[in-house]
Amino acid sequence: xxxxxxxxxxxxxxxxxxxxxxxxxxxxxxxxxxxxxxxxxxxxxxxxxxxxxxxxxxxxxxxxxxxxxxxxxxxxxxxxxxxxxxxxxxxxxxxxxxxxxxxxxxxxxxxxxxxxxxxxxxxxxxxxxxxxxxxxxxxxxxxxxxxxxxxxxxxxxxxxxxxxxxxxxxxxxxxxxxxxxxxxxxxxxxxxxxxxxxxxxxxxxxxxxxxxxxxxxxxxxxxxxxxxxxxxxxxxxxxxxxx
Length: 243
Prior knowledge:
Blueprint: E1 3-4, E2 10-11, E3 29-30, E4 34-38, H1 41-53, H2 72-83, E5 89-95, E6 100-111, E7 116-124, H3 132-148, E8 153-159, H4 163-171, E9 175-186, E10 189-199, H5 203-214, H6 229-241
Parallel strand pairs: 7-8
Antiparallel strand pairs: 1-2, 3-4, 4-5, 5-6, 6-7, 8-10, 9-10
């Protein structure tokens, strides 16, 4: 339905009683398999550095704006700085089985007035990649921002050449929105940036699929998924649309 103002110009749909969203607080977010804790150099630094150091090379840092860190002291200094920030707000990802930090992630570009926020700085160690914890960490942030804090839009942005990040966004149900050409210069190279989003109207369908995917009976004894998230999202969309 198209809405018009008094001049018969088309305008967007009204958002009644909009007061903005809440800013995220520095508090833990708990899931079934992992917990997100606001980053703390003393508490998480050694575990994170050791987890990242298990990689055979530094390719995991290619598309990030920080790192790699050759010395643990340099990494701890970096984390100490991150502790002081509210935007971006960095979290350590804790494996509930081992109680060890094995990756980090952030909420950033926080615009509470407009209800827009971004998930970024996704830094996963080999212990975290391709596990249910890796997916749950992002689902926890989606739940926190869209359900608890009242955001209308969650963004995902990445280097246009970062195929794993693009695939991750699409797998989670983010919608591709386009390419920002020559958006940045990173490490002396041009970066075109791809934009994705999930908006509040998308979320209920996605959340239902997320919960089905995260259910313990969707994983075998080795922790391998029985049903793909993409299949569950497609099934849930069919239920929602009646197709």
